[in-house]
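Bug #2210: C-alpha cell dump truncated for 1-deoxy-D-xylulose 5-phosphate reductoisomerase?
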Amino acid sequence: MSTTKSVSVLGSTGSIGTQTLQIAAELPEQFRVVALSAGRNLDLLEQQVRQHRPQAVALAAAELLPNLRQRLNDLRPRPELLAGAEGVAAVAAWPTAQLVVTGIVGCAGLLPTMAAIEAGKDLALANKETLIAAGPVVLPALQRSGSRLLPADSEHSAIFQCLQGTPQPRKAQLSTGVPTPGLRRILLTASGGAFRSWEADALQKVTVADAVKHPNWSMGRKITVDSATLMNKGLEVIEAHYLFGMGFDDIEIVIHPQSIIHSLVELADSSVLAQLGWPDMRLPLLYALSWPKRLPTPWRRLDLAAIGRLDFQAPDARKYPCMDLAYAAGRQGGTMPAVLNAANEQAVALFLEERIHFLDIPRLIERTCDQHRRDWHGAPDLDLVLKVDGWARQKVGELQAQAVVTG
Ligand SMILES: NC(=O)c1ccc[n+]([C@@H]2O[C@H](COP(=O)([O-])OP(=O)(O)OC[C@H]3O[C@@H](n4cnc5c(N)ncnc54)[C@H](OP(=O)(O)O)[C@@H]3O)[C@@H](O)[C@H]2O)c1
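Reproduced locally. Full output below:
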C-alpha cells in the first residue's frame, strides 16, 4: 500500500500555498499534490500545474478560465479545469485527496472548507478566519463527518505539538470545542508585529508600507496588517478557544519579539511546555501534513546560543485595541466573531487601498460590532453566518462613507 499522502491545496498561489508546494516538492515520496485552487494569479498557477501535475485545478476568478485553458492546452494528461466558487469547492472535496490545506485568505475559505469537511477530508487549517467566523457551524460538521482538523497556524501547531506529550487519548488531542483534559492555560506568543517598537502615539503616522513589513515572518498582506494591529493574535485566541475547548480567561497573549517560542501550554500540575523553532511556516505546515509522523528534513537547526536571549512582555491594550475587541467578540460567541472577522477583513482592505488610516481599523470594527448587538444570535447556522458576514462588510463601507473615520 502506498504511504504517499494525496493533498489538495486551496490558495496555492499564496504564502501558505507556495510553502506547502515547496514541502511537496522536497518530499515527493511523502506527498502528492492532486488538486490546486487559486484566486487569480495565472502566471504562478500555470507554473505550479506544470510542476506538480495535479488532477484538478480551480480558479476562483471564473472570467480567467479561458486564459488558463489556453495556457495549459499542451499538457497531457490534461488536468480537469474548474472555476468559480463551485470549482474551488470541488477541489476542496476532490475524491482522491486525503488531506486539504486551507490557504485561502479570509472568510472566502468558508464554503470550500465546509465542502472538504462534508467530503470527510482531513484539514490542515491555515485559514483561521473560517473557524473564527463559523465555529458553531464548523465544529458540529467535523463531528458528523469525522474529518480531523490539524492546526497549521504556527501557534496552534505549537500547542498541538506540546499536547502530544500529555497522557491523553489521541482522539482528545484532535478535539474541537471540547475541553482538552489536563490543559490549564494556553500562552499564545505574539511578535508584536511591524509596530512593536513604536510608541502608541506614533501610530498616527503609520503608512501602508510601514504596516506590511513584518519583522520576523514573511506572509500575505492581510495577515501582516493583522499582525501589526494584533488582531491576528486576537483571532488566534478565538481559534484556540474552538480548537482546544479553553475558556477565554485561560488563553493569554504574551509579546515575544524573537518569535522562537511559538506558544506554550500550562498543564494541571503547573508544568509549562513550549515548542521552539525558527519563524518558518514550513514546520507547522509539515507537521499538519505528516501528523502523527515526524519526517526528517535538512532544514536549518535551532541555535539557541546564536539567538542569545528570548524576551517577553505583556501586550499594551491601549496600543493594540483590536486584541480586546477580539476577546469581547469571542466571549460573546454566536454571530459576533463572524461580524468581528468580516469587519476586520473589510477595514484592512480599505486600509490597504489607502482609503482609511491604520487607527481607523479598530474604530470601524468596534462600531460594527456595537451595531450588531441587537441582531446577535447565539447559535447561527451557515446561512446566518454568511448573512452577518455580508452585513458587517456593508456596514464598514457605510461607516467609512459617513466619515465616521478620519481617512
Ligand atoms: N502566511 C502565513 O505565514 C500564515 C500563517 C498563519 C496563518 N495564515 C493564514 O493562512 C491564510 C492564507 O494566508 P496567506 O498569508 O497565505 O495569504 P495570501 O498570501 O494572501 O494568499 C491567499 C491565497 O488565497 C487565494 N484567494 C484570495 N481570494 C480568494 C477567493 N475569493 N477565492 C479563492 N481563493 C482566493 C489567493 O489567490 P491569488 O493570489 O491567486 O489571487 C492566494 O492563493 C490566512 O487565513 C492566514 O490568516 C497564514
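Output looks complete on our side. The radius of gyration is 21 Å. Marking as cannot-reproduce; reopen if the truncation happens again.
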